[in-house]
Design goal:
The chain is an alpha/beta fold and 379 residues long. It is built from 16 helices and 9 strands. The two termini are 27 Å apart.
Length: 379
């Protein structure tokens, strides 16, 4: 496998074009002015103005380039990833897998504490060698050369990369799509995976992939149906991308405000509901860095096509494997454990009454502690 060093270097004209497009946005009318129909125009304008006038892409680009990055080719698909080795010789290799709408940018705040725990309140034995790829079509793992790249194919590519890096045994961690890829790695790579720690949130138990719920009480069943009804209002993004990804790709590729609001809607709806604004839940510059990576890499189209492929692939969620698995839930919802671990039999469970779908950005210190605790018994 030919692994090449990579550095982000967006040409000046692309940065200038982004700002010009933001300033030239043709804004729609706002029918209701609240979030019931998507991102309100007032919020969209505020975010777009900050992105155009106050956000420093070059500073964020330099920050990202402070982490060693690489690309390689797997079956014609470019895979971009961050790879940071710990100075601790017995560090545990850890593959961190993102979900939607995300990329490697989500996890950059955890890399330092994971790689150098002593400098961040941990012990030498808590150290990890960290590999953070972007899924095919996301981040700088673009463009997608053709159909066929979904969860199982991504898992095989990431396992090949880990072996090429010299990691014969490693841990995996992920949420959302990343949880599905982690599951596939446990199946495909078998004993090469020492364990899998998955993060989840209340939205995960209100989908078509919800595990059996026959054991729930009548009151719990009613609560679950309420969660599913609320979630159904949120599934428009998925319906479009899993049926007509090319149609939405034009807007996401041509309009930065379309790409911005497409991602912002999910951050507003899926982060901690106690946070009034997106920037109360996550760092605004990190959010805009993630959005900028989507824009410069044409990741909106790539992500849409990935979701289409995943929805039409033979492999499904919820398969069984024999690798040690733990769950970390973010969000104050008692049904999460009642559904995902009803017998209390998982080797590791922790639930935080705050946060949401993007814990690596919302509560990175807590997630680092969970990773240390889970893998401490598996080294």
């Amino acid at each position: 496998m030919d692994i090449k060093p990579f550095s982000i270097a967006i040409p000046d004209q692309e940065v200038e074009d982004l700002v010009a497009r933001l300033h030239a946005t043709r804004w729609p009318d706002d029918v209701v002015g609240d979030r019931s129909r998507g991102v309100p125009v007032s919020e969209a304008r505020r975010l777009a103005d900050h992105w155009a006038d106050d956000f420093d892409w070059r500073a964020q680009e330099a920050r990202l380039n402070g982490f060693p990055q690489f690309t390689t080719d797997v079956d014609g698909q470019t895979i971009h990833f961050v790879h940071v080795r710990s100075k601790e010789p017995d560090a545990t290799p850890l593959l961190i897998l993102h979900g939607y709408p995300s990329s490697f940018v989500e996890s950059i705040g955890m890399i330092g504490p994971l790689v150098d725990p002593v400098a961040h309140g941990g012990r030498p034995e808590d150290a990890f060698h960290v590999v953070v790829p972007s899924l095919p079509g996301f981040g700088f793992s673009t463009p997608v050369p053709g159909p066929g790249w979904a969860i199982a194919e991504s898992a095989a590519a990431f396992d090949a990369i880990m072996r090429a890096l010299g990691y014969d045994r490693y841990g995996v961690h992920g949420g959302d799509i990343g949880a599905g890829v982690a599951e596939q790695l446990c199946i495909q790579a078998g004993e090469r995976v020492i364990g899998s720690l998955v993060v989840t949130d209340p939205g995960a138990i209100a989908t078509e992939y919800t595990p059996p719920t026959d054991h729930l009480t009548e009151a719990e069943q009613a609560r679950l149906q309420g969660l599913k009804a609320a979630r159904a209002e949120d599934f428009g993004y998925l319906g479009v991308q899993t049926t007509r990804p090319q149609s939405i790709a034009y807007g996401l590729t041509d309009s930065p405000v379309a790409q911005l609001t497409w991602i912002a809607e999910k951050f507003q709806e899926w982060t901690d509901p106690a946070k009034a604004r997106l920037e109360d839940a996550v760092d605004l510059d990190q959010f805009l860095t993630l959005t900028s990576v989507y824009w410069f890499g044409k990741g909106g189209a790539g992500a849409a096509n990935f979701l289409y492929e995943a929805a039409h692939a033979a492999a499904a969620w919820g398969q069984t494997h024999d690798r040690p698995q733990g769950f970390v839930a973010f969000g104050d919802e008692p049904l999460i454990r009642r559904i995902l671990d009803p017998e209390g039999s998982l080797p590791y469970w922790n639930q935080h009454p705050f946060g949401g779908h993007f814990p690596a950005m919302e509560a990175p210190d807590h997630l680092v502690d969970d990773l240390r605790a889970f893998f401490a018994g598996l080294r």
